[in-house]
C-alpha cells in the first residue's frame, strides 16, 4: 500500500510496482487529517487482510525561511504533516495491529538531512519530536 496526498503520483508509483509483479494499491491520504489516515488503514486491511508493518515517512517543507520570516500558516502546515500526521498514522496503525495481535510501525523521519535545513526552523522541531517519540510508541 502506498499513500500520498498527490493522487496522480501515488497511483503512478503503485502502477509501477504492479507492472513489476507486486501487489500494490494507491491511496490518496492527507496525513494531517485523522479521517483520511483512519480510512487509509481500513483500506489497507480490506485489500491485504491485515497490517503487519508500516513505514511512516510523510513530510513537507513549505518554504526555506528563517524563523523570523516564517508565517504561522506555514509552520502549522509543516507541524500538521510532519509531527501530528506521523502521530496519527502510528495511532491508527497500532490500533489495527493490536486488534490482530501484532505488527511494527515506524517513522522514517531520521532520513531527513537536518543540516540542509539550517535556516528552516519549521522542519527541525517536528523531525526531532518524531525521533524522540518513535521508540516509545505502543
UniProtKB/TrEMBL annotation:
Q: Where does the source fall among the domains of life?
A: Bacteria
The protein's matches in InterPro entries, at most eight in alphabetical order, are given as: NAD(P)-bd_dom_sf (IPR036291), SDR_fam (IPR002347)
Task: Give the signal peptide, or none.
Answer: none
| PANTHER family assigned | SHORT-CHAIN DEHYDROGENASE REDUCTASE (PTHR42820), SHORT-CHAIN DEHYDROGENASE_REDUCTASE FAMILY PROTEIN (PTHR42820:SF1)
Name this protein carries in UniProt: Short chain dehydrogenase
Amino acid at each position: 500500500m502506498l499513500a500520498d496526498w498527490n493522487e496522480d503520483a501515488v497511483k503512478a508509483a503503485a502502477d509501477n510496482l504492479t507492472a513489476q509483479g507486486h501487489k500494490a494499491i494507491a491511496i490518496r491520504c492527507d496525513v494531517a487529517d485523522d479521517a483520511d489516515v483512519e480510512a487509509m488503514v481500513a483500506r489497507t486491511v480490506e485489500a491485504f487482510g491485515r497490517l503487519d508493518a508500516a513505514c511512516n515517512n510523510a513530510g513537507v517543507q513549505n518554504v526555506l525561511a528563517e524563523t523570523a520570516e516564517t508565517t504561522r500558516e506555514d509552520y502549522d502546515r509543516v507541524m500538521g504533516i510532519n509531527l501530528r500526521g506521523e502521530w496519527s498514522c502510528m495511532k491508527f496503525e497500532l490500533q489495527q495491529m493490536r486488534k490482530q495481535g501484532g505488527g511494527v510501525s515506524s517513522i522514517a523521519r531520521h532520513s531527513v538531512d537536518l543540516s540542509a535545513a539550517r535556516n528552516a526552523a519549521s522542519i527541525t522541531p517536528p523531525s526531532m519530536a518524531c525521533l524522540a517519540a518513535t521508540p516509545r510508541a505502543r
